[in-house]
Give the backbone structure.
Amino acid sequence: MGENSQDQARKEKNTGSSEKMRWYVVHVYSGMEKSVRRSLFERIERMGMSEKFGQILVPTEEVVEVKSGQKSVTERRFFPGYVLIEMEMTDDTWHLVKDTGKVTGFVGGKSNKPTPIPAREMDKLLQQMQDGIDKPRPKISYEVGELVRIKEGPFADFNGNVEEVNYEKSRLRVSVTIFGRSTPVELEFGQVEKV
């Protein structure tokens, strides 16, 4: 009985995608990832090859930034210049992808026989994308003890060590040495830069 339920789960998992489908990485012009994704979907549809393709992903994560007290969430590509394609590799599918505008080629293996991404790596990547949606990361990250340079305000051009970081408010406390004394200064992320 246990075997049947496993078989059932396996069948459900494979519904809609061929056993031969694997994930491949395609290098594209940077900044053109989303337009390449659109073009690929259109070409796949036009050529009637939908059954040979699964998902096409532009790996992104959400990042939070606070500017002048306003919190904004933006999308950040964490593999600029790359698109991930789930597909069955044949001569026809290879040509369809390779001949799409702004695609420079497959990554890994020989140019005409690309190597698929190992399933374990792909799972990790999909998890990273999901985490980025569930828990958006701060656009800039600072660590306690890190040396930063103050860009504006009365302490402009001073260097200091980060003592505390508040991602909710995008503020940090920096310890600056003035006249031989260490003074804590409260600053916004935008007022400092990494040294």
The helical segments are 2-14, 33-46, 91-98, 119-134. Residues 1-16 have pLDDT under 50 and may be disordered. Residues 93 and 152 are 54 Å apart (CA to CA). DSSP finds four helices and 14 strands in the chain.
